[in-house]
Protein 1
Amino acid sequence: MNNDKTFSRREKKELIVGIVVILVCAIYFMYLNSRKLEEVKQQNIGSMISISADFNKTDGLFVGSVVRLAGVDIGSVSDTSLLDDFTVNVVMDVKEDVLIPEDSGVTINTAGLFGSKYIEIQPGGMDEYLEDGGVIEYTQDSMIVQDLIDRIISIGKSKKEKRNQAK
């Protein structure tokens, strides 16, 4: 870089190439994810049941998002709706032959750091299983990357202030 704090022509080209590479990678990963969603939809043709869960925050979760159990795709999100208490009801269509204990929980996870959101079901231990129209009571909301970064920065600032006070 030049001493006068301006970018040279070569540095500008390198920056543009870097941005283009990042955009191409992001588009490619979104394309792969959309293909995966289509594969899940094709696999899910057959006997399905609908189950639901209420969340406080579903950022990035959409109709068609994958539903997984133990890392295996078993269904997809079929509907989302805002309730009167400002929570979000998420309806999931899952394979009928997958037995989900009534005391199971669900979380909204992200595939990778910036991937798409999906629902992961954590099976409970009960011997009674959810039927069509069943409701999962135990939920964990979507984690937003920006919130996570803000939390990390806040913790770092707090620790720095404590060290400065100790001196």
Protein 2
Amino acid sequence: MQENINIQNKKAKFKYFIEKKYIAGLVLTGLQIKSIRYKKANIDNSYCTFDTDELFLYNTNFENNLKSNTIKLLLNKKELIKIKKEATPPGVTIIPLKIFINDNGFAKVQICIAKGKRNYDKRETIKKREAKVKISRILKRN
């Protein structure tokens, strides 16, 4: 059985409010899929934009690939139109949440429509996280 491959964007939930999620296919080269299978890819600074009615993933780092990393995303025409309409307001962007390999062995990416957090929103997130840690430490002692 195949090992579960799940490369996540750990900074996404801290930097953005996640609104809607979609799953898209990827057009990859041999070295890129090899890097994904060995979990040597990084999508922390990645983002998606439209170029002539097609969605592309930019800034994805692969271990073996030194050239520019632009990856075409595979979605239905209806989904592309829907995503383009949702991503047009200012402050809204499309970011990848995770890259995974499905049951059939194809690499997929989970993208989302996200709105950027302000500094005070980020501070609230940090406060909530620290409160959870404090509560769990208190419960462990008892």
Protein 3
Amino acid sequence: MTEQIINSKQSLDAYKAYLDIQFSKKHYLRMTCKTGDLRTLSQNAALHVFCTQVSEALNDAGFDFRVFVKPGYPVPFNENLVKEYLWRPIQKAITGKNSTTQPKVNEYILIYDALNLKLAEHGIHVPWPCKENMK
């Protein structure tokens, strides 16, 4: 069975029944239980849009990777560089979590706010992608 989200009494009861069956068959279970609301699928999609938009804004403003992160050859920003070298270090500092799948819904707001504040120091503002901003 793949990862299960248990968010109701009904889904809890169904998963208990599944576990009972598996245990009676194998007499051994290995499980991991995570609690709390992790980022949503729409937050994940928005993160990728945001990183792309930030990379475009930085490139349009004349910045390149070496200006923000590493001296050397000029490298234009892209979604991956923004995610790995701008978003992830801020995420790690705020949440202590490495993977972008790990922060909770409310932590995404804190990470965005911190990165947006830093970008504003360079005259760049990219709003968080949402239905209202995408129109």
Protein 4
Amino acid sequence: MISVTDLRAGIAFEEDGQSFTVISYEHIKMGRGSANIKVKVRNIKSGSVVEKSYINGAKVQDVLVSKREMQYLYKDDDNALFMDPETYEQVAIPLTVIADEHIYLKDGDSFPVSLLKGEPIGVMLPPKMAFVVAETAPGAKGNSATNVFKEAILENGLKTKVPLFISIGDKIRVDTRTGAYSEKASA
């Protein structure tokens, strides 16, 4: 058993015969009453996202999750395919399981894949990844004292806001948790 106060993003647990993985965690303490723990979770089998609320001190059944470094190969309409570089075994992860994370996957890159009883349940992305700007308005020298942004489309199809000095072909780092511009990457 694991205390609900130990639930964090990426942790898996079981409740009522269903397995969930935590997307976000929020600890709410109001006045004199006991604290509430709100977690947004994804059902591992169905991919549906729900919010759950627990009182402080509640416990849930923890599950053993293993991680294996796997190379991303490609994605089709329903699955993202990964390969174990040691055994060359290929694993298909349904896009419903990895949700919006699949847009950050680059062919040939390696990622830790979380496995529950041998079934893939998620991909752990680094906090920031570098992408090339494919489309944006022409670069301009602007007032750097204010945060003025323009729309840009990256090589992976992601739309994000970038500073005025960013041009087509520039490499930028994007926060994989929010999809927001983080910094200009070195070439």
